[in-house]
Write a structure and sequence with these properties.
The chain is an alpha/beta fold. Helix content is 30%, strand content 22%. The chain is globular and about 55 Å long. Bound molecules: ligand 30A.
Length: 238
């Protein structure tokens, strides 16, 4: 097995380029404020607290860079411009990562509730297997429907996982994946297909139910509840 990356260093690409249209708000969802802190700063701060992480590349509109500037962070912070599709934003962030990094860890800024242990487990799996993603086994029934909206089948959901972030991959695999997809003009439609296209295996790592992606207005209420619950359990532990 030659899945081991040549370098142990980790660059994080924090995706925070969304426009916020689905939330019906002027502020993009990843910058809505939770208990005084813009959402994308929750995961940003977690990455800065981890010795395994060497730098953070924030993919966001220049209008929001100030949320990450003017502080003395423990690690270098770089910026990249968002692209039209998610994969374009990942590609844009990839241009800024240190070429000597072994692993790239991609995280969605609208997922504020990661902890160091989840990031560590994803990084560890990516070190071992080359690519890894957080996810959860789906706990609901899934239906396959025809274009008119009638149920055609009920797929067996055992073995079906919902993908979350963080995801981590060897830089050389990510570069190769983009060379491959750009060369063939492919739009990858799901979160793992770029690396899968290369015929590489992606290891799933069990994430957490509270690792939600804030997408629609009700998610903000859910996020406030999760944050209160996390704080309560931290209070109990100390
Ligand atoms: Cl980070 C996308 C997309 O952004 C994408 O739409 N794909 C990928 O294969 C990766 C790399 C990766 C996959 C699985 C586990 C870790 C990293 C990323 N984004 N495919 C489509």
């Amino acid at each position: 097995m030659s899945a081991h990356p040549s370098s142990n260093t980790v660059s994080v690409i924090l995706l925070a380029g969304g426009q916020g249209l689905r939330m019906g708000a002027a502020t993009p969802k990843q910058f809505l404020v939770l208990e005084g802190k813009p959402m994308a700063r929750f995961s940003f701060d977690i990455f800065h607290s981890m010795p395994e992480v060497d730098e953070v590349v924030v993919v966001c509109s220049p209008d929001y860079r100030q949320l990450f500037e003017g502080y003395s962070w423990p690690k270098p912070v770089k910026f990249a411009l968002p692209g039209a599709r998610r994969q374009d934003s990942v590609f844009s962030g990839m241009q800024e990562v240190s070429p000597s990094c072994g692993l790239v860890c991609i995280h969605d800024g609208a997922r504020p509730f990661i902890d160091t242990s989840l990031v560590e487990r994803v990084l560890q799996a990516a070190r071992q297997y080359g690519a890894a993603a957080a996810g959860m086994p789906v706990k609901f029934t899934v239906k396959e429907c025809c274009s008119q909206g009638f149920v055609r089948s009920t797929p067996d959901r055992s073995g079906i996982w919902e993908v979350q972030t963080p995801q981590a991959v060897r830089l050389d695999w990510l570069v190769e994946g983009f060379r491959h997809s750009h060369g063939q003009g492919i739009t990858v439609t799901d979160d793992v297909s770029l690396v899968e296209l290369l015929g590489k295996e992606v290891r799933m790592v069990e994430g957490a139910h509270h690792n939600i992606k804030v997408t629609v207005p009700i998610d903000l209420t859910i996020a406030q509840n999760i944050l209160a619950t996390i704080k309560q359990s931290q209070g109990n532990a100390s």
